[in-house]
Amino acid sequence: KTQVEQSPQSLVVRQGENCVLQCNYSVTPDNHLRWFKQDTGKGLVSLTVLVDQKDKTSNGRYSATLDKDAKHSTLHITATLLDDTATYICVVGDRGSALGRLHFGAGTQLIVIP
Amino acid sequence: EAAVTQSPRNKVTVTGGNVTLSCRQTNSHNYMYWYRQDTGHGLRLIHYSYGAGNLQIGDVPDGYKATRTTQEDFFLLLELASPSQTSLYFCASRPTGMGEQYFGPGTRLTVL
Question: Which residues of B touch A (CB under 8 A)?
Answer without folding.
Answer: 31, 40-45, 48, 50, 56, 88, 90, 94, 98-101, 103-106, 108
